[in-house]
């Protein structure tokens, strides 16, 4: 595949392409670090930071930085404490020199615009933001359990019951987003974090978009999770059904430990996605789980299972009603 084609599907790492993705390969090394116990952020402190600190009053010196939590395309995320309120939070520090070119600042502006309007227990809280000459800083709820990606890497795959419970949680968060006319467009285990009680929280709204007409044309996301309608050549519009496709890929990955279409090259993976050339599911996977995955990984977007259909599907219902 040429660099132009890579760029067109949003996986370029060149300086003039869209935001590079963390994962386009089949076997991305998965490291794991345990988070240490820290006091859960308290509600009063969150309100304090939100109400007393307008953007102009906020600055880096108000926070004590503890340690890095992760890194992304434009900067780093740190565990931090707001000195005055003792709020424990995550600071997503985006270096201006990394994105102030070729319209990439649009990503950051959009991330702030979209994320700041969201309030849901299944979505990382957005407390505020500020900027100085060299960086833009997002103040976020700290997810003490870290990335689901690392948990999955450690455990290889999840039981059907655990996978179904996780998928139901992601579906609830997506349902909230879609009702607010937001497409996430980058659903993957790296962008799902865990709270104190193991609950899932969607993060990283860098590719999200508010689309009241439920139509978009920009090709973006992480290749393994991108839908066929986004990968076809030329300008083709797509809907929020792209998130449902990603939910199908996620279910497959939870149950097997690998993604269904990954191949050695970007071009080969793209071809497999567009032809629905999926790695066969292991025989140990239940027929209900297989039916669930095959109802989401459907080439024709309108016939894909809806979010209501996801929550009503026998595989989800059966696994979510029992404890554990
Ligand atoms: P990319 O474009 O590569 O996905 P990004 O720049 O958009 O990255 P994020 O995905 O938001 O950055 O964050 C990068 C990593 O930092 C996450 O994968 C996660 O490990 C960690 N991280 C981000 N936000 C939090 C948070 N609120 N609590 C704990 N860890 C976080
Ligand atoms: Mg990310």
TrEMBL record:
Glycyl lysine isopeptide (Lys-Gly) (interchain with G-Cter in SUMO2) crosslink location in chain: 188
Cross-referenced Pfam families: Pkinase (PF00069)
Alphabetized UniProt keyword annotations: ATP-binding, Kinase, Nucleotide-binding, Serine/threonine-protein kinase, Transferase
The reaction(s) this protein catalyses: L-seryl-[protein] + ATP = O-phospho-L-seryl-[protein] + ADP + H(+); L-threonyl-[protein] + ATP = O-phospho-L-threonyl-[protein] + ADP + H(+)
Cellular component terms (Gene Ontology): chromosome passenger complex; kinetochore; spindle midzone
Enzyme class: transferase
Sequence positions that bind ATP: 92, 141-143, 190-191, 204
Polar residues bias: start-end ranges: 28-39
Keyword DNA-binding found: no
Matches recorded under InterPro entries: Aur-like, Kinase-like_dom_sf, Prot_kinase_dom, Protein_kinase_ATP_BS, Ser/Thr_kinase_AS
GO aspect biological process, one term: regulation of cytokinesis
Region (Disordered): 1-45
Stored SMART domains: S_TKc
Superkingdom: Eukaryota
Sequence similarity: Belongs to the protein kinase superfamily. Ser/Thr protein kinase family. Aurora subfamily.
Name of the protein in question: Aurora kinase
Organism: Xylaria flabelliformis
């Amino acid at each position: 595949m040429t660099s132009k084609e890579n760029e067109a599907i949003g996986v370029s790492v060149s300086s003039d392409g869209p935001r590079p993705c963390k994962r386009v390969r089949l076997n991305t090394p998965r490291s794991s670090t345990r988070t240490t116990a820290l006091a859960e952020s308290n509600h009063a402190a969150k309100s304090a930071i939100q109400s007393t600190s307008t953007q102009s009053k906020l600055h880096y010196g108000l926070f004590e930085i503890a340690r890095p939590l992760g890194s992304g395309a434009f900067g780093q995320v740190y565990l931090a404490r707001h000195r005055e309120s003792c709020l424990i939070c995550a600071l997503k520090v985006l270096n201006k020199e990394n994105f102030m070119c070729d319209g990439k600042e649009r990503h950051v502006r959009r991330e702030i615009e979209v994320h700041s309007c969201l309030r849901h227990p299944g979505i990382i809280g957005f407390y505020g933001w500020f900027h100085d000459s060299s960086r833009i800083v997002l103040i976020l709820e700290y997810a003490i359990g870290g990335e689901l990606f690392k948990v999955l890497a450690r455990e290889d795959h999840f039981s059907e019951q655990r996978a179904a419970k996780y998928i139901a949680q992601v579906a609830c968060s997506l349902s909230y987003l879609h009702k607010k006319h937001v497409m996430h467009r980058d659903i993957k285990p790296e962008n799902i974090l865990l709270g104190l009680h193991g609950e899932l929280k969607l993060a990283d709204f860098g590719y999200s978009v508010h689309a009241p007409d439920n139509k978009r044309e920009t090709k973006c996301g992480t290749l393994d999770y991108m839908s066929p309608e986004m990968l076809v050549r030329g300008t083709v519009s797509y809907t929020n059904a792209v998130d449902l496709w990603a939910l199908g890929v996620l279910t497959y990955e939870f149950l097997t430990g690998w993604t269904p279409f990954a191949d050695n090259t970007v071009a080969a993976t793209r071809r497999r996605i567009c032809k629905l050339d999926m790695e066969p599911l292991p025989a140990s996977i239940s027929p209900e789980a297989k039916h669930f995955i095959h109802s989401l990984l459907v080439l024709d977007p309108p016939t894909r299972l809806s979010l209501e259909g996801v929550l009503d599907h026998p595989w989800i219902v059966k696994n979510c009603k029992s404890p554990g």
